[in-house]
């Protein structure tokens, strides 16, 4: 009995040490993200089932205070630039005289780490170390983080709640699972992978080349003289990955589309302050044109009214999401698309 008790106590101590060690790595990574000046190339991947979209970017950053991102691939998007200073993202295309404020972007890596550190300290995250891996030629600690119970509202991280139901996402402020590759030497997160919920895709950002001692001028983080900054309620995108940045919530895609359907455009429309945007994905198919709408946690408790006229419409709710399909498709095709999104 005494031996059994010693084994049990040893397991508890080992588990506590592992969580404490994970907390230290998160703190070190947070400091690196907030303070290091770096430059390099990274690859963003958005994977939904068999569909994969990738965007290659060059980046320059002074901690989390000033950031510049330039799109390298795909070729159709070369010249697109994102600038971050004083808490505001701007979107600008090289040579144009107008830049646009982006009202909402996903977490900076430092913000994700800050939330993770706070949740870890309050016992809401489980951490697991995996074998070290190499990213961009550098040895990395690999850490997987998962919420272990529903997370209460901000400022109320106190008593533990019941464990989440299978497939339930504990809270919007943290993914269902996050995986971090942290550089052993500097603490910088060189790769991160997030899955928001089981039905959603995987978002992965990997640094493929990094320079820890770049010389960065102040002009790198400024718009050229004569460029006007405007606020824009609606932004158009060609890729899901870029639209994902502006939407601020996971964009869900259908598993089924009519044969020979082509995606034309993605619109992100911000309706009111403090309200999640409305995402509209426009498609064309031999059966007709149609648009798939979605938003997350809308303030309205009822779906929109179907439009008047000959156009068809189908609306439904799935958890915190509202969806709608409007267009020329037969009703049975709209319903089939809706079912493929896990209604």
Explain the overall architecture:
The chain is α+β, with helices and mostly antiparallel strands. It is built from four helices and 18 strands. The strands form two sheets. The protein has a twelve-stranded mixed β-sheet with strand order 7-8-9-10-11-1-2-3-4-5-6-12. A six-stranded antiparallel β-sheet has the order 13-14-15-16-18-17, with helices on one face. Helix 1 runs antiparallel to helix 2 (109-121). The radius of gyration is 22 Å and the shape is globular.
Number of strands: 18
Number of separate structural domains: 2
The helix-and-strand class reads: alpha+beta
Which strand order do you get reading across the main beta sheet?
7-8-9-10-11-1-2-3-4-5-6-12
Helix and strand string, N-terminal first? HEEEEEEHEEEEEEEHEEEEEH
How much helical structure, as a percent, in the residues?
Answer: 10-25%
CATH topology of the largest domain: outer membrane lipoprotein receptor (LolB), chain A
For the residues shown, what is the average pLDDT? 79
Low-pLDDT parts are 4-18, 154-172
Specify the CATH homologous superfamily of the largest domain.
Lipoprotein localisation LolA/LolB/LppX
Report Rg. Answer: 22 Å
Shape type: globular
Biggest sheet architecture: 12 strands, mixed
Q: Report the total helices.
A: 4
Strand content: 35-45%
Q: Any idea what the CATH architecture of the largest domain is?
A: Clam
How far the N terminus sits from the C terminus, by CA atoms, comes to: 52 Å
Give the class-level CATH name of the largest domain.
Mainly Beta
């Amino acid at each position: 009995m005494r031996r059994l008790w010693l084994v049990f106590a040893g397991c508890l101590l080992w588990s506590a040490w592992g969580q404490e060690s994970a907390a230290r790595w998160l703190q070190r990574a947070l400091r690196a993200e907030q303070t290091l000046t770096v430059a390099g190339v990274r690859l963003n991947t958005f994977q939904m089932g068999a569909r994969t979209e990738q965007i290659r970017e060059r980046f320059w950053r002074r901690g989390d205070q000033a950031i510049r991102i330039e799109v390298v691939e795909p070729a159709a998007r070369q010249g697109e630039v994102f600038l971050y200073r004083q808490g505001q993202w701007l979107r600008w295309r090289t040579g144009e005289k107008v830049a646009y404020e982006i009202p909402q972007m996903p977490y900076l890596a430092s913000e994700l780490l800050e939330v993770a550190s706070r949740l870890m300290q309050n016992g809401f995250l489980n951490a697991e170390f995996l074998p070290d891996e190499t990213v961009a030629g550098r040895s990395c600690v690999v850490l997987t983080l998962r919420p272990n119970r529903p997370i209460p509202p901000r400022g109320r991280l106190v008593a533990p709640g019941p464990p989440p139901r299978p497939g339930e996402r504990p809270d919007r402020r943290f993914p269902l699972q996050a995986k971090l590759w942290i550089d052993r030497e500097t603490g910088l997160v060189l790769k991160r992978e997030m899955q928001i919920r089981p039905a959603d895709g995987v978002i992965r950002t990997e640094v493929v080349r990094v320079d820890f001692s770049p010389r960065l001028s102040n002009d790198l983080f400024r718009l050229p003289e004569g460029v006007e900054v405007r606020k824009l309620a609606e932004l158009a995108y060609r890729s899901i990955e870029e639209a994902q940045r502006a939407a601020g919530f996971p964009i869900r895609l259908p598993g089924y589309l009519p044969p020979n359907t082509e995606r034309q455009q993605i619109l992100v429309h911000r309706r009111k302050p403090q309200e999640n945007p409305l995402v509209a994905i426009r498609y064309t198919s031999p059966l007709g044109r149609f648009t798939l709408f979605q938003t997350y946690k809308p303030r309205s408790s009822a779906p929109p009214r179907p439009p008047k006229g000959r156009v068809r419409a189908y609306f439904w709710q799935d958890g915190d999401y509202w969806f709608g399909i409007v267009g020329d498709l037969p009703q049975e095709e709209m319903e089939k698309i809706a079912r493929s999104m896990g209604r």
